[in-house]
Amino acid sequence: AQDELARNDKLAVLGQVAGSVGHELRNPLGVMNNAVYFLQTVLSDADETTKEYLGIIKEEIAVSDRIVGDLLDSVRIKPPHPEAVGVGDLIGHVLRKCTIPENVTIVQEIPDGLPPLKADPLQIHQVLRNLVSNALDAMPDGGTLEFRAERAVPDAIMLKVRDTGVGMTSEQLGKLFQPLFTTKARGIGLGLVVVKNLTQANGGEIEVKSEAGKGTTFFITLPCAGPQVETAGEQEA
Ligand code: ADP
Ligand code: MG
């Protein structure tokens, strides 16, 4: 038990360090991004090699920024501010913010009359953004990204996010929610940690089914906002 305590202390400190470092990296990355933007404008007549290098710098800044973003998201999870929010609105919002490649087909099936969720919309956006980003990574040659929602017992809604991507082996599935588990050269393995924490913070649960070579489905069950659960200010930690 003593060891466990020491370990938790270390993890808490590590989390704080990661948070501060991540935060401190945000500014220089922003400055670099502006500088590259400036150079690209000034050097618009430069030779192809120069332009290519500028493009590489810009891309690598974007990769770093994403990693720092995942890192920050994973260490600072705020208490949710739940409200009644429609599933279709949540998905629509996230899809408008994501760049969906042309070879990816979006399917969206939300039954009429589905009650709204009771969840923090910003946090559910973050959950969906992460799932979409992974699904797109899993379909480099295109495919179908499907969103479905249905009523679940007792007062819940199940959201299904399915892709027809590379899928996972059972070994990968077992490590899926472990911090820093990634199979990507440019991944950090914190996206699904954030997804799970935020889902649970909103009173929900997450499950996954996946088959290598076929695709992956994430099932997210969240409480729905029936009239009986409409008590203001109620929060689940
Ligand atoms: P990252 O995206 O930085 O690798 P994540 O926590 O988001 O970190 O995902 C961890 C790993 O889980 C990924 O590297 C990938 O191997 C696997 N994974 C997650 N989502 C999917 C998916 N939709 N299809 C296939 N593999 C996935
Ligand atoms: Mg990810």
Automatic annotation (TrEMBL):
Domain spans labelled Histidine kinase: 20-226
EC numbers for this chain: 2.7.13.3
Name of the top EC class for this enzyme: transferase
Gene Ontology molecular-function annotations: ATP binding; phosphorelay sensor kinase activity
Source superkingdom: Bacteria
Catalysed reactions, semicolon-separated: ATP + protein L-histidine = ADP + protein N-phospho-L-histidine
Record key words, sorted: ATP-binding, Coiled coil, Kinase, Membrane, Nucleotide-binding, Phosphoprotein, Transferase, Transmembrane, Transmembrane helix, Two-component regulatory system
Protein name stated in the entry: histidine kinase
Lineage summary: Bacteria, Pseudomonadati, Pseudomonadota, Betaproteobacteria, Ferrovales
Gene: gchK_1
Shown segment, full-protein numbering: 104 to 340 of 340
